[in-house]
Amino acid sequence: MIPISLIRQYIFCPRIVYYNLLTNIKPIYPRQVSLGNEYHTLQDRLSKNRKFKKLNIKYDEFVLNKYIENKDLNICGIVDLAFLSKDEVTPIEFKFINTKKPSYSHILQLYAYGLLLSKKYEKNFNQAIISYSNNMKIFKININDKIKNDFLKVLKEIEKIVKNDILPNSSADQYKCSQCEYLNFCDDRF
Ligand code: SF4
């Protein structure tokens, strides 16, 4: 089953998918990753007592830090937080990043979580939320056909990498490679 975190990783560089799913390499993650994990733990703790008024969402209950998988879609992942109402599910992702607007890879990743939730709880899924750590900046994302189709394309490409079992080409530039935990294993890089 494909972890949803690899959707974002594939967009960053398809080789990360190969290293992650088809090798036993244990990468050494940069400090930013452990800071991100600590941030998630903190958000988990805070969310238990929050009222979420700022989000302006009507909901009956919420789920927190929940593992979900779907065998038909062949994806799995841990949802940070999701609001459930009678008819609808709205996922929210917390990101430890300062940014002015959501990246498309974050949007596709969030769509995948929403899709999982929608299948599990048999509810509609039309909207998702990303919360960035800079002053808890919040973005509401309306799910459209482009997001749905692009997600399916990425998923198919990831499945192709797994099926072919060949290190894919990468157009990652120096900036990307210099922050990548797999740099030591890409022999064609500086
Ligand atoms: S070092 Fe560069 S090419 Fe290799 S996996 Fe990382 S980003 Fe991709």
What does this 3D model show about the protein?
The chain has 190 residues and is an alpha/beta fold. It has one domain: Lambda Exonuclease, Chain A (Alpha-Beta Complex). 41% of the residues lie in helices and 22% in strands. The protein contains six helices and six strands; from the N terminus they run βαααβββαββαα. Strands 1, 2, 3, 4, 5 and 6 form a six-stranded mixed sheet that branches. Strand 4, helix 4 and strand 5 (127-132) form a beta-alpha-beta unit. Helix 1 (5-12) packs antiparallel against helix 4, helix 1 crosses helix 5 (145-164) and helix 4 (104-121) packs across helix 5. The longest helix has 20 residues, at 145-164. It is globular and about 50 Å long. Iron/sulfur cluster is lined by residues 13, 15-16, 170, 172, 176-177, 180, 182-183, 186, 189.
Question: What are the SSEs and their pairings?
Answer:
Layout: E1 2-3, H1 5-12, H2 14-22, H3 31-47, E2 61-70, E3 75-84, E4 89-95, H4 104-121, E5 127-132, E6 137-142, H5 145-164, H6 174-178
Parallel strand pairs: 1-3, 4-5
Antiparallel strand pairs: 2-3, 3-4, 5-6
Helix pairs in contact: 1-2, 1-4, 1-5, 4-5
